[in-house]
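help with this record:
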Amino acid sequence: MSEAHNGLKAGEKHPMFGRKHSPETLEQMSTAKQGENNPMFGKPKPEGSGSLTKRIASFDKDTQATTVYTSMREAARTMFFPKSSESL
């Protein structure tokens, strides 16, 4: 973007500033990009896209048991960690 246009319609100067699309308009925009109208329709997902979950193994010294979780979120929920710990 050129220097002349930089910030021209940013913030309060933008025509939609402080406004919201109506539910009908949101539905129309959603419908317009479904199926064959979607720019990604029929194209394979890029390599590495999708869920980036890692398997987590937890070892309990007392019981000598190992528990495997499919994600950090699942491990945090099961071990009762606060929600802020899930983003480690």
About this structure: The first helix runs from residue 23 to 32. Helices lie at 23-32, 72-78. The chain has two helices and two strands. The chain has a mean pLDDT of 82.
